[in-house]
Amino acid sequence: MSRPPLRVRKRQRARDEIVAAAYELFAERGYADVTVADIAERAEAGRTTFFRYFGDKQEVVFADEQEWLDKVARRHRELRLDGAPTLSEALVLLRETTLAICAEVTRDAEHYVRRERLIADNPELSDRADRKQRRLAETLGEILRDQGASPETAALAPQLALACYNAGREIAADDPAALGPSVAAAFDRLGIASTTA
Predict the structure, then answer these.
(1) What angle do CA 71, 185, 103 make, to 5 degrees?
(2) Are 97 and 151 in contact (CB under 8 A)?
(3) What backbone torsions phi and psi does residue 85 show, to the nearest 5 degrees?
(4) What is the pTM of this model?
(5) What is the pLDDT of residues 6-17, one digit of tens each?
(6) Which of 69, 81, 158, 189 minimizes the number of CB atoms within 10 Å of its CB?
């Protein structure tokens, strides 16, 4: 597999340095007491560079989220289904997607714990996280409708998957290793089996 071009690697490095600087500052001073200027200075980047990658300070906390949400949407759009999915079939698909999200967000366990604590301790971040979850549910609903699901299935399946994620997240607390199993257990309680079972 070939490496990305140098320009792409430099941009990724700059973005990663901004995220690392932000998380260092949040740990040192608390989220509310850190400004965009503070983050840019710590990352040795200008404010213009900061805003090239992030719309605001909140977005740094959700830095990689859009990338893996785009992967989720792409994966679902590429699925070839035999006919319109029923509610049960949609939930089986969304179980796998939700568990893939769990694996992605906990890939860096330490970062996951810091991020979860930041969101829990800051209402504006909690509100942003809730809005992002609603957008994900809407996107999954749109994909299910495009695949022929009924309006009821397209509305209900993503909400049930989101409920399983949030229940598992609450049960797992700050333990990244427990997130996936806790979410899987929530789907199990609904009778939604894994496709790999």
Answers:
(1) 30
(2) no
(3) -70, 135
(4) 0.86
(5) 888 888 899 999
(6) 189
